[in-house]
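User: Sequence recovery, please. Input:
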């Protein structure tokens, strides 16, 4: 068994704000069959410590970035958890990263430096009975772990992999925090921690990890360009020989149209149609001639939903309908609330995991018009439930959907959804018009829908890729 410590700020089913949680929560189980024993280091947020029954205290630090901390170990929901119980950092309400007013917690740099530092402590033998051969750090919140390891006795012995789930979040902190974050001022240089006068936790991970991954091959290529690299393209170009993209998968048990306890199972008569009727009823939507489209998303500029607001007439004029579930930017929330005044549009502002299942099962199509999308998971749920994805041609969306085109519809139809490019309201309008036309070609629609449901979206292939990557990084190439 290859021993790996995953350092992550969220993991399903315990704490989630986005896809990172799904990936961090699914990877350990997916890797177990590939000779990898993964333990997961998580912050002791109230939602996490509340799940612990009889945890074992396996390490303690009297001063962990401003207060005492303990490391608690327990198996929870199939995860071999190590929980950093540090009340001064994590025992608070509101969000994982945001306070009740929606602003970043002012001590976020310390909160996740502590997590990363404890990851490095574990790499240095802090646990009496277990130590990792490799530390897998996720996003900026884990980014300082490869740095601390590189500056510790474990350097060169314990390997580090850094995964970028989203380069838009870089973990920047003022230079004045260097000593509070236990960083060597000598490392505050452009070829190390420094990023335009600030400390960058993500850059630290990119510089010091033995290997860097991101969550799709296309995003890996995009990240090397100024358009997508968000200022870190130069760093990544410098490390392109140790940089690759591995697609995310989804949990095939949790997202299973035949066994999903939150929907009318598809193996019942008229499965999909029954879910659609139920969804319409739930949102008081009338019957309609066009496709029922769904969106489940954070409402941020990344997700391109402002484009959808502009393109919506193209769907509604053709008898289509929209149900949107999301939360985020106040302006987008308000704009969608307004849009919901149309009888064929329903909007739920909030976060609701089970409603997401009912929507995926009840929709004809799922819309993902992202400006950039490292991987994206909702289009994968759509594929699995035969809910045709309509996606922008970017990142993981480009890698997971086979777009309807003359080539993919000719002969043996291989298309699984629709794509549009460039990522503009006009191109999205055109895609929605194509979707509505396709909806009336019932045989073709069902063919594409069957293709979608047969497309592999689980973890099997990617788990194998991660296992091979770990072996390669550890110098055990097979
Ligand atoms: P990102 O991580 O950028 O938000 P992903 O598509 O990778 O995008 O993952 C988003 C995850 O969060 C999916 O599992 C999606 O179903 C879920 N999600 C997003 N918003 C909501 C919401 N408002 N209610 C329920 N689930 C949501
Ligand atoms: C990020 C990305 C999303 C990806 C997820 C999990 O939040 O925005 O595209 O699927 O991480 O890797």
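Assistant: Recovered sequence (478 residues):
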């Amino acid at each position: 068994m290859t021993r790996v410590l995953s350092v992550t700020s969220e993991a399903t089913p315990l704490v989630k704000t986005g896809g990172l949680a799904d990936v961090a929560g699914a990877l350990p189980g997916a890797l177990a069959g590939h000779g990898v024993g993964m333990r997961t280091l998580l912050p002791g947020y109230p939602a996490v410590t509340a799940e612990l029954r009889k945890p074992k205290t396996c390490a303690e630090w009297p001063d962990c970035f401003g207060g005492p901390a303990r490391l608690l170990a327990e198996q929870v929901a199939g995860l071999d958890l190590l929980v950093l119980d540090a009340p001064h950092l994590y025992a608070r309400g509101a969000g994982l990263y945001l306070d009740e007013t929606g602003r970043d917690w002012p001590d976020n740099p310390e909160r996740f430096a502590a997590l990363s530092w404890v990851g490095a402590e574990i790499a240095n033998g802090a646990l009496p009975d277990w130590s990792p051969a490799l530390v897998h750090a996720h996003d900026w919140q884990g980014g300082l772990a490869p740095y601390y390891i590189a500056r510790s006795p474990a350097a060169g012995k314990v390997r580090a992999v850094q995964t970028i789930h989203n380069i838009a979040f870089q973990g920047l902190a003022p230079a004045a925090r260097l000593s509070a974050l236990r960083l060597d001022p000598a490392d505050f240089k452009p070829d190390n921690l420094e990023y335009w006068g600030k400390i960058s936790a993500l850059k630290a991970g990119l510089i010091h990890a033995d290997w860097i991954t991101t969550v799709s091959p296309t995003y890996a290529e995009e990240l090397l360009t100024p358009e997508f690299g968000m200022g870190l393209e130069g760093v990544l170009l410098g490390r392109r020989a140790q940089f690759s993209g591995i697609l995310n998968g989804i949990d095939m048990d949790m997202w299973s149209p035949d066994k999903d306890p939150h929907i009318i199972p598809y193996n019942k008569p008229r499965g999909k149609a029954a879910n659609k009727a139920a969804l319409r009823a739930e949102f008081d939507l009338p019957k309609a001639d066009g496709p029922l489209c769904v969106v489940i998303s954070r409402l941020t500029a990344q997700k391109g939903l402002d484009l959808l607001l502009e393109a919506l007439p193209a769907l509604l004029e053709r008898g289509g309908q929209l149900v949107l579930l999301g939360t985020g930017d106040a302006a987008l929330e308000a704009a969608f609330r307004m849009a919901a005044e149309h009888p064929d549009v329903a909007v739920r502002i909030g976060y609701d995991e089970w409603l997401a299942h009912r929507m995926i099962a009840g929709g004809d199509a799922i819309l993902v018009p992202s400006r950039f999308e490292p991987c994206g998971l909702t289009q994968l749920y759509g594929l699995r439930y035969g809910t045709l994805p309509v996606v922008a041609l970017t990142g993981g969306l480009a890698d997971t959907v086979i777009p309807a085109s003359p080539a993919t519809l000719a002969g043996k139809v291989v298309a699984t959804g629709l794509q549009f490019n460039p990522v503009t309201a006009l191109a999205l309008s055109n895609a929605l018009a194509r979707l509505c036309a396709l909806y009336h070609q019932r045989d073709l629609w069902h063919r594409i829908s069957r293709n979608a449901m047969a497309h592999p979206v689980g973890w099997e292939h990617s788990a194998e890729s991660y296992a091979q990557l770990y072996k390669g990084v550890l110098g055990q190439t097979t």
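Residues 18-20, 23, 165-166, 215, 248, 373-377, 396 surround alpha-D-glucopyranose (ligand 2) (CB under 6 Å).
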